[in-house]
Amino acid sequence: MDHAALLALFDRDLREGARPDGPGDARVERAGAVVRQTAAAPGYSCVLWSDLDEDTADAVIAEQIAHYTRLGLKFEWKLYGHDRPTDLGQRLRAAGFAPGPQETLMIGRISELTLDAGPPRGVRFVPVTDARGVELVAAVHEKAFGEDSSWLRGELLARLAAGPDTVVAVVALAGDEPVSAGRMELVPGTRFAGLWGGGTVEAWRGRGIYRALVAHRARTAAARGHDHLRVDASDRSRPILERLGFTPLTSTTPYVYTPCSGG
């Protein structure tokens, strides 16, 4: 499958045809020229896909701001490098959105990936199935990324409680110390599984744990009937993923809008 066809499949299955990303009250709807998810805080509200041009973009942006502001919700417009119009990012900034770090959308066909990596000596992978495991994942997230992980605790607990069909999480332990973790979101009815949150605490980087976590989750995805993986890759993880056989397709940048207090 060439790049254009693969990108079209990704847009169709995971963006225009998106499903709610977790249990609870999240809903996905087609609203004119966009597909958006709306979820009460701390859930994830986001514009997932759009079909805009120079004449329609500003009005549609204003409509989404009005929709989420009425509900008092912060939301993200997930912009991909091939979205139109070409100056959509500039228009979002002009409307009050704050851009986050740009990453690279990478896709891997599981059957073509190099998946022979295992954890280094002294490290074992443990599936996350309960609150204790979620705490270990959250601890890794906070140490690896320097970010509060309250949202991750709540989201992962809710998804695990709803059943294992849409999420898989794993933590890497050195003895009893959590040193790396990652999760995988499964989208039933599509070819794709998504790798998210892969991170290793600084003292344990450079030992192949991330690479082995990718391989572990890829094998799990294949066993669940998915044949492609997607990753929003940072500059740090992109070279590792390319060596494993992932293909960079386009950029992805989160643009976040926070309603003014009282507005």
Give keywords.
globular; 32% helix; Aminopeptidase; GNAT family N-acetyltransferase; Acyl_CoA_acyltransferase; 2 domains; 263 residues; GNAT_dom; twelve-stranded mixed β-sheet; alpha+beta
Please characterize this protein's 3D structure.
It is a single chain. The chain has 263 residues and is α+β, with helices and mostly antiparallel strands. The radius of gyration is 19 Å and the shape is globular. A hairpin with a 2-residue loop joins strand 8 (167-174) and strand 9 (177-186). Strands 1, 2, 3, 4, 5, 6, 7, 8, 9, 10, 11 and 12 form a twelve-stranded mixed sheet that branches. Helix 4 packs antiparallel against helix 5. It has helices at residues 3-16, 57-70, 88-94, 131-145, 150-162, 209-223, 238-244; strands spanning 27-31, 34-38, 46-50, 75-80, 98-99, 103-109, 123-127, 167-174, 177-186, 192-200, 228-233, 247-257. 32% of the residues lie in helices and 30% in strands. The protein folds into two domains: 3-103 and 252-257, Aminopeptidase (3-Layer(aba) Sandwich); 114-245, Gcn5-related N-acetyltransferase (GNAT) (Aminopeptidase, 3-Layer(aba) Sandwich), CATH 3.40.630. This is GNAT family N-acetyltransferase. Pfam families: Acetyltransf_1 (PF00583).
